Automatic annotation (TrEMBL):
The lineage of its organism: Bacteria, Bacillati, Bacillota, Bacilli, Bacillales. The keyword Hydrolase does not apply. This is Carbohydrate ABC transporter permease. InterPro entries: MetI-like, MetI-like_sf. The chain crosses the membrane at residues 12-37, 73-96, 108-127, 139-160, 181-203, 251-271. It is found in: Cell membrane. Keywords: Cell membrane, Membrane, Transmembrane, Transmembrane helix, Transport.
Length: 286
């Protein structure tokens, strides 16, 4: 069907508007990227750089030679890996139990799960809990208090609702107990949901910031986000080499932002195909 002049003008205006929005959104990311790879002398000699004449890895080499920065990346990596695994085990097991009708008291437990979504205890009770558990200045303080999410439990329960209980009965006939049926049958079928929520948990643990400020006093245990915030507020890197001339502080900040962002950007494309199947099914059936 041929479109009229008004439709064509409206379509052109939409394309132009969205193109402008895309450019405005992408330019800060582009600027951060090119500044992090710019030669320090060029950065100091120019007011603004649209494209570097000479590329340099000086900022990245300086950051990766700093023990505090490398240690913070290791802390964030441990949080993302260990925290994601622990959270997936707890969330998936809990959600699967709530999805089985033979589970006694599941409606009351589901009610309390929904209650936690609506009402949060707040900062002070959480801090008192962490302190009473003896987790102050302990990296596990960033994992155990947020081991599971009521919202994720509800969504994942919706996914497990689509797996018929007849599979459990067939597994029981073949000699499987509940644990073996979970690992051998249910878990392989739930890979889309596990991949999706695993990515959500990994992003949350990698971006741990506020809880680290509350519970970690030792800078050697800071995750990368806290160290990055410390750099952005003009504080120098701890344990810097006094014999090595650092690049400009702004370049170090840009390089730190790129390094902090890259791991999640690399993970997303591999798990993106699971998003629709893993999340939409749970959200519809939950």
């Amino acid at each position: 069907m041929q479109r009229g002049i008004g439709d064509r003008l409206f379509h052109t205006a939409n394309v132009a508007f969205l193109a402008i929005v895309a450019i405005v959104t992408a330019f800060p990311l582009y600027y951060v990227f090119i500044i992090s790879f710019t030669e320090p002398t060029e950065y100091l000699s120019k007011t603004i750089i649209w494209f570097p004449e000479k590329w340099s890895l000086e900022s990245y080499l300086y950051l990766m030679s700093n023990s505090s920065f490398v240690r913070s990346i290791g802390v964030s990596g441990f949080l993302a890996l260990a925290g994601t695994i622990c959270s997936l085990v707890v969330t998936a097991s809990f959600a699967y139990s709530l999805s089985r009708k033979r589970f006694v008291g599941r409606k009351w437990i589901l009610f309390f799960v929904l209650f936690t979504i609506l009402f949060s205890p707040g900062i002070i009770p959480n801090y008192m809990l962490v302190r009473n558990l003896g987790l102050i200045d302990n990296i596990w303080a960033l994992i155990l208090p947020v081991l599971s999410s009521g919202w994720y439990v509800v969504l994942m329960k919706g996914f497990f609702d689509n797996i018929p209980e007849s599979l459990d009965e067939a597994a029981a006939i073949d000699g499987c107990n509940d644990v073996s049926a979970w690992f051998l049958i249910i878990l392989p079928l739930s890979m889309p949901a596990m991949a999706t929520f695993g990515l959500f948990y990994a992003v949350e643990y990698w971006n741990s910031y506020f809880s680290a400020l509350l519970y970690l006093n030792d800078y050697k245990k800071w995750p990368i986000q806290v160290l990055l915030q410390n750099m952005l507020t003009e504080n120098p890197l701890a344990e810097a080499d006094p014999l090595r001339q650092p690049p400009p502080a702004q370049m170090l900040k840009m390089a730190a932002v790129v390094i902090t962002t890259l791991p999640i950007l690399f993970i997303y494309p591999f798990l993106q195909k699971h998003f629709a199947k893993g999340v939409m099914v749970g959200s519809v059936k939950g």
